[in-house]
Amino acid sequence: MKIINKLLVLVCVMFLWCGCSDLEFDETNNLLEKEDVYKYFNRTTSMLNHLYSFIPQDFGKINLAMLACSTDDAEFANAYSNVQDFNNGSWSALNTIDDKWRAFYTGIRAANSFIVEIETVDFSRYKYDQGYSLMMKKLPYYIYQARLLRAYYFFELARRYGDIPMPLKVLTAEEANTINKTKFAEVINFVVNECEEVAPNLPVTYKELSQEYGRVTKGFAMALKTKALLYMASEMHNPTSNADKWKQTAQAAYNLIDSAEIRGWYQLEGIFTALNNYESKENILSRQNWNSNRFEMINFPVRLTDGKSRNTGVCPSQNLVDAFETINGYSVTLKANGWDCTDPEFDKNDPYNKRDPRFSKTVIADGMTFKGIEIESYKGGREGGSVAQGGTATGYFLRKYIQETTDFDPNKLVINLHTWVIYRYAEALLTYAESMIEAFGDPDYTDGTYTRSARWALNQVRQNAGMPEVTLSEKSEFLAKVRNEWRVEFAFEDHRFWDIRRWQIGSETQTELYGVGIEKLDDGTKQYQKELYESRFWSDKMYLYPISQSEIFTNSNLQPQNPGW
């Protein structure tokens, strides 16, 4: 099996800062001359693989913290991690965080070079080789993969920074240091057009071709188009709620859903079975990594790390826990004096039981069994101490993406492969549900163009999770359900941070982070109390990232700085 993101050292770029713009550098870092790279098929393939290395993922990308720790979904136990700068007001153009400017423009420049060079490659010298036929089957896809990856990186930059430079050729130093920004809408239009052009020229899968996983496909081209249009239609970039933008997004999502259903490309496949599973039928694009226990080392309860960890990393919040309904579809809220829920089957003494099945696959709570032990997050329990004592900051531990079979005992060491999902089929369904309710205001609206309703799409995801259907009909109530579904379905999958921004709800969600305090009484029962863990800083300028001041010093055409920064 070939895993494309295990790149050859031959073409790995170790970018060296030298004072020039990040839009200008040698795309091979002087490791090889271009003529040598594109003379040989295996080196050309390695250069294409290099373009994939810039695909973002979040197994703790900010000083070991997940980006969710800068949202109301979680806290990172290490108070000195850079992720805290998102939460305490010290984020700035001089102190950038998750600054992918350099990385994405590195990938874009490499893609621009590859797109030019691949047009004139000549591998006829291999025509008598045994593998020549397979080479020639693969080669036509290379340029379209590069174009789609370039479009993806432009989208990732635009959702961070808004207006961005958009170089479509390899720039000289002078050009790079004087390039102007392109408006967000124009960037999205480019991304959409590229997706439409490359989609017919890519396969749905490469399995029959060469058993390669993780390459961009026709399905991902359709998915990226859908995602780009979703951001263009959302409140941040559509403050007048132009219904046509939502209709355009709904159409793109519908096309992907229709193709998946009719042609059998993708399907929902149980609760989170797509995670850490690159062969899942739900995965449209994922990035596979080396075997590692690093993610588990950061996030396991401390007593399960064989003394190798001193405190827990990502700690889900009570804010997030309250988003998970009961198994019967009732809301649950923890208040200062205990639990509030109208579900007749809800047990305040056993509050984590009979919840949305996704809850126990996302969060480890007090009383749950993990690796054969019962977690004790109550005060005085094994996990109930302070962070310094090996406890959890919020009363909860991360479960999502954790490989439970990981073992740190040197006598039975177990490490696992980790696969980060970039886009899975459930996202297309929720995009369709959101777009349809925003465009038409009726959860049951269908017509000759949109033959599926918003309700149908939302309930597809809920049914897959074992949750009851949503029966609400009022637009605002139904939309609230859709947004909550985004939260619980995609928690810790690098969605909440961006959804807060596209919905512009930061001032409502980002100022107070809560945990749970649990007292175990003499009779064995427990009392639960909502506890404020942290007050956080929020400013509306944080809807966009600041452009690094060093970039603006290098290229004054990057002015004006993003609002508020």
Distance between the termini: 47 Å
Q: What is the total number of structural domains?
A: 3
Give the biggest beta sheet: 2 strands, parallel
Cα gyration radius (Å)? 24 Å
CATH top level label of the largest domain? Mainly Alpha
- Which assembly state applies to the chains in this document? single chain
Total number of helices: 18
Structural class comes to alpha+beta
Gross CATH architecture of the largest domain = Alpha Horseshoe
Q: How confident overall, as mean pLDDT?
A: 93
Shape: globular
Strand-residue proportion: 5-15%
Instruction: Name the helicity range.
Output: 25-40%
Cross-sheet strand order for the largest sheet? 1-3
Quantity of strands, as a count: 14
Write the layout of secondary structure elements.
Layout: E1 2-3, H1 34-37, H2 41-52, E2 74-76, H3 84-88, H4 101-117, H5 132-161, H6 173-176, H7 184-198, H8 207-210, E3 212-213, H9 218-233, H10 243-263, E4 283-292, H11 294-299, E5 314-316, H12 318-321, E6 333-335, E7 338-340, E8 363-364, E9 369-370, E10 373-374, E11 397-398, E12 416-424, H13 425-440, H14 454-464, H15 475-489, H16 496-503, H17 506-509, E13 512-520, E14 526-535, H18 549-554
Parallel strand pairs: 1-3
Antiparallel strand pairs: 2-5, 4-12, 6-7, 8-11, 9-10, 13-14
Helix pairs in contact: 2-4, 2-5, 4-5, 5-7, 5-9, 7-9, 9-10, 10-13, 13-14, 13-15
